[in-house]
Each structure stands twice: as C-alpha cells, then as structure tokens.
Write a structure and sequence with these properties.
- This protein has helices spanning 42-53, 55-60, 73-82, 96-100, 141-147, and strands at residues 12-14, 20-22, 30-35, 63-69, 88-91, 104-109, 112-117, 120-125, 128-133.
- It is an alpha/beta fold.
- The strands form three sheets. A five-stranded mixed β-sheet has the order 5-4-3-8-9.
- Helix 3 links the parallel strand 4 (63-69) and strand 5.
- The longest helix has 12 residues, at 42-53.
- The mean pLDDT is 96.
C-alpha cells in the first residue's frame, strides 16, 4: 500500500482524446489523481461532475485533476462529452496504474466477492504523495480535497 511521503508511481496512459499522458511530464504540478470504478455510473458521474464544477478553483491552486478507470478511450470520450467534463480522464484498460496504486481490490456486491477499483484519491505534489483518501464517499469529496490543498 502506498503511503504519504512516498514518490508517486509513474505511468503513461492514453487520455479521452487518445493522447499520451505521462505522469513524469507533470511532476512540476500538484495533481489530484482520482481512481473510480466505471464511466456513466451514478456515483462516478456525480464524482466527476463535482470535480468539474470546482475545476477553476483547482486551477487557481495550480492543481490538475486527473481521473482514472479501466474504461476505454472511447468510453471516456463519450463520458466527457455527455457531461461536459473539462479535465483529463485516463484509460487504464490493462490496470497498469490501478495496480501500481493498489486500488484493484476485492469488493462485495450482494455478498458476492469480486475484484474491482476501490474509489481512492491521491494528491501528488512535485512527484510525492501528500494526501490519500481511501474508500471515498462521493458526496462532498471534491470540495474536501480542494479545501485541504
């Protein structure tokens, strides 16, 4: 499990436009890196909309918002278009970053165990993990992250 003060694991993934995003290229900024289970589901949509609504305030704090799920580039493009999302969504179909950040875990649905992405947010400052939000509850989460920057 990753801990505060550790260097953030580096990764390179495609964004919703098919462009390559490498964490290495953004280490001079603060980054809110949030992992979510699936595009176009109620909780994930609400979380994305809340980050989107606060994007200018994150920009004012020189902080980039990046969402990651195992959905495809095409799925992310549709999701971003449908909800007018104006921040980066990364497609991690092979679970590269998802596994590096330890968010691929056993979950339960109606008592049945399965593997999936546990909603988790990391705040990275100059390549170092400075805050971790585990088992995120969507309501008010984006505001909480913003207030703690």
């Amino acid at each position: 499990m990753l801990e505060l003060g550790q260097k953030a694991p580096l990764f390179t993934l495609p964004d919703q436009d098919g462009n390559t995003f490498s964490l290495q290229d953004h280490l001079d900024k603060k980054i809110v890196l949030y992992f979510y289970p699936k595009d176009n589901t109620s909780g994930c949509t609400k979380e994305a909309q809340q980050f989107n609504e606060l994007k200018e305030k994150f920009d004012d704090k020189d902080t980039m918002i990046v969402g990651i799920s195992k959905d495809s580039v095409a799925s992310h493009r549709r999701f971003a278009d449908k909800f007018n999302l104006n921040f980066t969504l990364l497609a991690d179909v092979d679970r590269q970053a998802i596994e590096q950040y330890g968010v691929w875990q056993e979950k339960k649905l109606y008592g049945k165990p399965y593997m999936g992405v546990v909603r988790t947010t990391f705040v990275i400052d100059k390549g170092v993990i400075v805050n971790i939000y585990n088992n995120v509850k969507v309501e008010g989460h984006a505001q909480e992250v913003l207030c703690q920057l």
